[in-house]
Design brief:
Elements lengths: L2 H15 L20 E7 L4 H17 L5 E7 L14 H9 L3 E5 H11 L9 E4 L2 H10 L3 E3 L2
Parallel strand pairs: 1-2, 1-5, 2-3, 3-4
Organism: Bradyrhizobium jicamae
Protein name: Sulfur reduction protein DsrE
Length: 152
């Protein structure tokens, strides 16, 4: 094997093994909560009013139990769970109140894209929602960075 063919094999192997350079760029950055002692990610993947209420209640209770500056809360909605972040959802005021107190609500763009393909129209979501490309990948990113996953 010549040096040039060996070099080509090594470069090919590295390009297969290396992650895409923008793989992390598709995630929402970590919250800017330097004094947070607790970091929680809440998963919402159901379109069930009781489940939505429970997720919001858990986030609210955590904010009350800990000072809002001492807890980082991120709610990741994907699949049917994105309905919580639609403008007409009756829980909209509660979502916006939690955002005002420092919680973050992520919405999965893969779900949005799928609904657009199926219905021919892009679904709307509230401005308080932070778009992420892949909801489950955002959960994985957060857990890899010290967040505890809770699925109420």
């Amino acid at each position: 094997m010549t040096i040039s063919s060996t070099l080509r094999v090594v470069i090919a192997a590295l390009s297969i093994a290396a992650p895409a350079p923008d793989a992390r760029a598709q995630q929402a950055p970590l919250q800017d909560k330097p004094f947070a002692e607790h970091k929680i990610v809440l998963q919402l993947s159901d379109n069930d009013a009781r489940k939505q209420g429970l997720v919001l209640s858990v986030a609210s209770n955590l904010m009350k139990h800990y000072d809002p500056d001492k807890v980082a809360i991120e709610i990741v909605a994907f699949g049917p769970g994105i309905d919580l972040l639609r403008p007409e959802n009756p829980n909209r005021k509660m979502v916006e109140s939690l955002v005002a107190h420092g919680a973050r609500f992520d919405i999965c763009l893969n779900t949005i894209d799928t609904l657009e393909r199926e219905n021919g129209k892009r679904p709307e979501f509230i401005a308080a929602a932070t778009p992420v490309q892949v909801g489950v990948a955002q959960i994985l990113f957060l857990t890899e960075n010290g967040y505890t996953l809770v699925r109420p």
